[in-house]
């Protein structure tokens, strides 16, 4: 096989090749310069846009779900996100991400912005948002502004999708209790106790379940739960003593109840609470097979001192005073009158 021998380039050819090479480099340098200029002009704006989107999207992201104030970013960042969301809403008032983000940002700013937060989050849902965080935030916000029935409804809605959220369960239990919906409240506290082993010894949860059971007139369950709290000295309180005494009284176990009434009376109480405790004690004292009249009189007098118009104490003292005073003349022991003779 023959090989072609490469011929040397002439001076003219070498100059032409060098010119072409320089032209390529000139074009490359021009394009690079143009690109650099464009980047210098547009890149800062692009970076700012991405930073804005990142800050905005943080609040719109369903995975971003802080509950407490300390879990949110600093106030300056919240206000920045709110301003960005507001700008987006000026362009499109139905922007679901912006509505949700601004609502959550208002929530983060505190109770003084609760109404704004409610409006934004309700609007987001009305326009079709399926953000799972919205019912939780609405529940807390409605509770904050005193609309308890709406708060209960939102908690229930949220918990249908997130049944094991302990913060929401606790909130739902409390709101239902405040609405005097004690069966629902007790069910939520029961769910909380079953959710986690550590909750089974939580004195706050146990006491609240006991109070819900008491309101449902489940005296035995209330008594059992309250007795279990007696060993927790750092939590045991006069309220527990009182409700334990009342549970025992309703179970017709007054001898066991009386020490708890006295325990409750051993601390400073407001007039209404002291009245309730003394009434319970007085009722128990009266029910004894052999009533202690001295204790009954002393308790009734103390009750009357606290509540001058108390009918229970007033009636008992009036009856006792009457029994001590001159009674009706008795015929027992008298000789019968002699009958007159006829004729």
Can you walk me through this structure?
The chain is mostly helical. Helices cover 70% and strands 0% of the residues. The chain is built from 15 helices and no strands. It has helices at 11-60, 75-91, 96-108, 114-126, 134-144, 148-161, 166-178, 182-195, 203-215, 219-229, 238-250, 254-265, 271-287, 293-306, 311-324. Helix 5 packs antiparallel against helix 6 and helix 13 packs antiparallel against helix 14 (293-306).
Please outline what is shown here:
By secondary structure, the protein is mainly α. Helix content is 70%, strand content 0%. The N terminus and C terminus are likely disordered.
Descriptors:
343 residues, disordered N terminus, single chain, 15 helices, disordered C terminus, mainly alpha
Q: What best-fitting shape do the alpha-carbon axes yield?
A: elongated
Low-confidence stretches: 1-54, 328-343
Strand content: under 5%
If helices are DSSP runs of H or I spanning 4 or more residues, what is the number of helices?
15
Radius of gyration, in Å, reads: 41 Å
The secondary-structure class comes to mainly alpha
Give the proportion of residues in helices.
55-70%
The SSE order reads HHHHHHHHHHHHHHH
Q: Would you tell me the overall average pLDDT?
A: 83
Rounded to the nearest angstrom, the distance between the terminal CA atoms is 188 Å
**Biggest sheet statistics:** none
């Amino acid at each position: 096989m023959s090989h072609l021998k490469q011929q040397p380039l002439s001076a003219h050819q070498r100059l032409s090749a060098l010119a072409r090479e320089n032209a390529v480099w000139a074009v490359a340098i021009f394009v690079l310069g143009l690109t650099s200029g464009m980047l210098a002009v547009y890149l800062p704006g692009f970076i700012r846009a991405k930073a804005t989107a990142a800050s905005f999207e943080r609040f719109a992201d369903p995975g971003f779900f802080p509950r407490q104030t300390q879990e949110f970013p600093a106030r300056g960042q919240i206000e920045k996100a709110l301003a960005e969301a507001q700008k987006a809403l000026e362009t499109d008032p139905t922007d679901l991400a912006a509505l949700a983000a601004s609502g959550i940002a208002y929530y983060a700013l505190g109770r003084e912005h609760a109404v704004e937060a409610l409006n934004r989050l309700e609007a987001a849902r009305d326009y079709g948002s399926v953000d799972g965080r919205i019912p939780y935030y609405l529940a807390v916000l409605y509770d904050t502004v005193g609309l308890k029935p709406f708060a209960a409804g939102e908690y229930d809605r949220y918990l249908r999708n997130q049944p094991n959220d302990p913060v929401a369960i606790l909130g739902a239990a409390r709101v239902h209790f405040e609405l005097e919906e004690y069966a629902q409240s007790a069910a939520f506290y029961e769910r909380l106790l079953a959710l986690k082993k550590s909750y089974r010894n939580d004195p706050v949860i146990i006491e609240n379940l006991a109070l819900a059971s008491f309101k449902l007139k489940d005296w035995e369950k209330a008594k059992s739960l309250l007795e279990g709290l007696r060993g927790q000295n750092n939590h045991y309180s006069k309220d527990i003593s009182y409700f334990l005494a009342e549970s025992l009284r309703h179970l017709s176990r007054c001898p066991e109840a009386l020490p708890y009434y006295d325990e409750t009376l051993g601390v400073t109480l407001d007039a209404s609470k002291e009245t309730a405790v003394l009434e319970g004690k007085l009722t128990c004292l009266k029910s004894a097979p052999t009533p202690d009249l001295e204790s009954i009189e002393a308790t009734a007098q103390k009750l009357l001192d606290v509540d001058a118009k108390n009918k229970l104490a007033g009636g008992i003292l009036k009856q006792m005073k009457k029994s001590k005073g001159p009674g009706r003349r008795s015929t027992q022991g008298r000789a019968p009158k002699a009958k007159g003779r006829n004729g």
